[in-house]
Input
Amino acid sequence: MKGAERRIPLGPFVILGAVVIGVFLGTSSPSNGVGAIIATGCLVLGVLISPRWLHMPIAVVAFIALSFALTARSMNGIEFSPLSEPVRNRSSGTLVGAVVGDPDVSLFSTQVVVRAEGWLENPERQVDDAVTSSEFGAHFRVTPINTGNRSVLVRASADDAVRLRSLDAGDRVALSGHLSPLDGYDKRWRWRHVAAQLDDARLTDLARGHSPLLSTANWVRAIVARGGAGMPARERGVLAGFLLGDKRAIPKETLDTFRAAGMSHLLVVSGANVAAVLALVRPLLRRAPIASRLLIGAFALVIFGAATRWEPSVLRAIMMAVIVLAGETLGRPIGGVRVLCIAAIALLLLDPMLLHSVGFLLSAGATAGIALFAAPLSRIMPGPRPIRDSLAVTAAAQIGVAPVLLPVFGSIPLVALPANLLAAPLVVPVTIWGLVAGALGALLVPGASRVLQTPTSLALQTIERIAETAARTPGAVGGRGVLGLGVLLCAGFAIRTLWRLKKSYLPSENVLGSR
Output
């Protein structure tokens, strides 16, 4: 039975591979109905054909066709939209829409993604008649040109950039500027469904959002922010990165330090944060009826996902957590590798553009590495089991992210493994206590957060010292180095396996003596 549980589920891996192939094919192909037709035909064949050995090939073709059709449809929606003509003409006007995520702030500019609800040409002639005169909360009284809810990257500089920095997800805005197509390095925004950019933007109208989900999420973010009010500015920014993935208040030199140390993933919300949220609501789940546990857990995860602005790594972790909760509710627990495959398949079908997200790939790679290699590495490592397990998990995660880090960044810091090993025991306590102390400090008397967050400050300072020391340590390994290390690791594993087989076939001393 244990051997069966340890087997890698090939079926989900094959289906995931089919989905990935379909996404790659759909990225560079025009949209048409061929993929949907093939997928439907394969579904009908799978129902009608009885030989089970044909089910997997039919499923592979069906998922390739389905993911191809969904990806081509998404690409077609970006290339051809009601905004296409104003973008080609580089028209000036006013964009009306809702803010999608947090503004990306730099020293001299600010950029934010807005889901466009309408576009007004020649705003000089229409704004006076279209907008009521008030500082905040004014709404357009005329119906703008429909934009098909396409996303637009809004850029502002100087004083206009300062006004954009205060925006929250869900806010409805009116922004004047001129549209232009994505060009050069900015084309990467297509993977976030951005169809154009609005340059030299100026905020002309603002109304706070009324979405219950986003309002609750923004309230949670405000509580976390107030809970760290008594901490130094840099530590407060790092804590926001740990808890919410919000890196706007982290100094650039601190971000560079974490990147050089191979620890930048700590500032991105992922599985550890989702596990912390589930740990906080676990007492409630234990007391709740079985039928409602999934709803309670999913509700908490959705609030947390909205508070972290649905980062790709958060999507992966939340989808896996929901699948695990569903399995527990139905009395059919699912293994880690299978959960990852199912979650990745579902997310890529819902949003094929996630395959081009570095954050999603790193998160999925680290999870796959831990699920596949942590246990074998722990068994072959010497030393006490707690140390072996911690080192094996960290090493397995590094193995999992290596195929992503090498093409994107070109090398992997050699010090990343020991640095992450030293910082790992502090990450979960910082996450859990940071959330609890932040909430209590925000709700209690002023100044309470400074006392409650003292352990958090000490842990963050320790993590920063580890990152600074690791960043100053020279040495990095490139693609050839990783290949060489992989060969040595495989050779060592093979030698150890052969030695064990040899010992198992050698007669023992008692047998030799009896002869």
Q: What stands out?
A: The beta strands are 92-99, 104-105, 109-121, 151-157, 172-180, 194-207, 412-413, 476-477. Residues 1-5, 125-143, 508-515 have pLDDT under 50 and may be disordered. Residues 416-443 form the longest helix (28 residues).
